Amino acid sequence: MHGNVKTLNQFIIERQADFQYASGELSRLLSDIGTASKIINREVNKAGLVNILGDAGTTNVQGEEVKKLDVYANEQLIAALSSGGEVCVMGSEENDDIIEVKFTEGNASYVVLFDPLDGSSNIDVNASIGTIFSIYRRISEGKGAGKLEDCLQKGTQQVAAGYVIYGSSTILVYTTGNGVNGFTLDPSIGEFCLSHPDIKTPKDAKIYSINEGNEAHFPEGVKKYIEYCKVEDKASGRPYSSRYIGSFVADFHRNLLKGGIFIYPPTAKAPNGKLRLLYEANPLAFVAEQAGGKASNGKDRITEIVPSALHQRVPLFIGSENMVKLAEEYLANN
Ligand code: P6P
User: Fold this and answer.
1) What is the mean pLDDT of the chain?
2) Which atom of ligand 1 is nearest to the CA of 249?
3) For residue 52, what pLDDT band results from cuts at 50, 70 and 90?
4) Of 54, 58, 67, 77, whose CB count within 10 A is highest?
């Protein structure tokens, strides 16, 4: 403990008894993700200085190659997860194929799917962005590098999941299936410190998050639900507030704490929705459910969907349980 502050690593060790498997390995893996996030955070915070540091693809004043932040974040996570010895295979939003970790001593038993820097288009306008991660146990036979089948598991098989939001402060939120806890990075000591213990998301709330610019192509049930959110009705606190940052981790994190529903439905440009099942929808569905919320594709529970491809997209309705349930009813009845 630093004074009365509990650090992420202390918390992970304390909660190790909760882990069903190889707890030391999972503890180290979660700690490695925390370390990579601190390194990414340092670069994200400098992003505003790009005019000094140079644009991606150029060489900065230190003679270093300037990378796009999402490429940099991806490299940091791959390096941290490859060297820890716990991971046998990874899947990243930035890589078309799986990333095999070949040189483990052969008994690496974890699989990590991640979006290294989601919403990176928002960096130039200083909006919050995030890293999302999803952790499984390997299921393929044999030792050494893992396989695609290890990455294509249902969300219910996750052993841990979470995200880091790089915003006005940097917060890491994760679950191992025993509740949701949030840790704020204290730059003065370089540690993530427990700041949001046992997060619970309100069952009902007054925020809806959706890109209404796509309304013309929304399914009828979504149009009707959004209309419902806008109707004046004092008893239910409507009209609700529309809040949409356009950065999934930022919209999700606000709604997790305050309550609300985030919807990315099928649209003309994204007939299967835009968000990715394996490293966006599944991990945040695990977090949402562990906080008492709900996540579906409008009909089926997100974490029950059997994945068929590494980068498959899925429509997403996620957040306060009763709001998601009502949206599903509108979809079922229209
Ligand atoms: P749209 C960012 O590009 C992202 O992948 C998510 O972080 C965000 O929720 C979504 O796209 C925003 O998409 O179509 O509304 O701009």
Assistant:
1) 91
2) 7
3) very low
4) 77
Q: Are 115 and 131 in contact (CB under 8 A)?
A: yes
Task: Name which residue sits closest to atom 10 of ligand 1, judged by CA.
Answer: 246
- 3-state secondary structure (DSSP) of residue 164: strand
Collapsing DSSP to helix, strand or coil, 37 comes out as helix
- Strand 261-264 relative to strand 241-242, pairing: unpaired
For the cut 50, the answer to whether the pLDDT of residue 47 exceeds it is: yes
**Cβ-contact 82, 75 below 8 angstroms:** no
Between the CA of 139 and the centroid of ligand 1 the distance, in Å, is 32
Q: Is 51 exposed, middle or buried (0-12, 13-18, 19+ CB in 10 A)?
A: exposed
Please name each of the domains of the chain with its CATH number: 8-196 (3.30.540.10), 207-333 (3.40.190.80)
Residue 35 burial (CB count, 10 A): 16
Q: Which of 53-57, 192-196, 212-216, 257-261 has the lowest mean pLDDT?
A: 53-57
**H or E segment to which residue 29 belongs:** helix 23-46
Spatial CB neighbours of 300, under 8 Å, sequence gap ≥ 6:
none
pLDDT bin (cut points 50, 70, 90) of residue 161 is very high
Q: Are strands 241-242 and 294-296 parallel, antiparallel or unpaired?
A: unpaired
Ligand 1 site residues (CB inside 6 A) read 118-119, 121, 211, 246-248, 274
Pocket test for ligand 1, best of 208, 269, 274 (most atoms within 8 A of CB): 274
